[in-house]
Amino acid sequence: MIDINKNYWLYVLPHVYCCIKEAKALLYNTLNGSSYVTHDSLLVDLIKSLQKKSNLGTISCQGRELANSPYKEFIIEFCGKEMGELIETQFTEKPVQMMPVLNLQQDIKKLLQAGDRTIGEEVLPYLQELNIYINNSCKLECHYCDKYFRQCLCCTTQETVEQVAMPYSLLKTILSQIRYGAVGKLNLMGGNVFEYPYYMALPDILSGFGEYVHLWNHYRHFMIDSIVFPTFVYHVVVTFPIIEVAWENCLHICRTHQAKFHFYVTGIEEYEEVEKIVELYDIDDFVIHPIYTCKNLLFFKKYIYLNENDILQTKIPFRQIFIHQKMNSYSLEYLL
To answer: What is 124-335's CATH number?
Structure first.
């Protein structure tokens, strides 16, 4: 119960993330996943005061103000969701909260301000995944080839571009530079990787990478006589419509090797077909990738796009929020 004749300290706990965009404020409890969103200008100003660095997460409030709307309802929800506390000023000095602050010693903006530094320096310790397109040879002419490639990992080619393959010496040079780095996943892609001129030499040149090597190829490229190496993980690209004979050939080969299936769908009918396929053929390791074609916006609006409730269903640690803020902007962990 708030006494209108008393003053209070209102403070936010350090595990609560705050984001203010234009006239909207979000409070998110990173420990229990609860959230609070408001458009009320009075409450947005209150939250801004809590976030002001000089206030150290605590502000002084008058009881006569907090006892009225919209503050009264806010305090009840704010404290009920364990985002902060309200205590009388007469019983304690001002509480000080040490709020988390994102601090990157080698932020891109800092590197740009230093004339003798380059953005790419010391990138190797942060490089977790590397994609290498070793050739562009392919005759399948998938209808949405360029869209698959631009929206997610996938093989690709261009009809107007001359067929080329990465020189063996260049591939060796790249591999030698990352061999002792932090790369945990090496994706080799095409075109049709089976047509890479040095495909048979890959096990030798990649012998030190072990299970980190992932080869991507379209299911129609897996022929009965295709040579598949047991030390590599094969990622099978599946687009629609599916050609039955080619699909059976692919399954026959992949059953005895490490394989992960990637289904690229452009509508609900293809998604439902994937459900039938994985059940019929007992496929456990697979991923479904929705692909935007410029003609299937309704499919994305109805089945793909996330709303606020979808996003807030999962508890997100403070550290992960900071990582997303930077990595989504700069993509430092991923190199194509």
So the answer is: 3.80.30
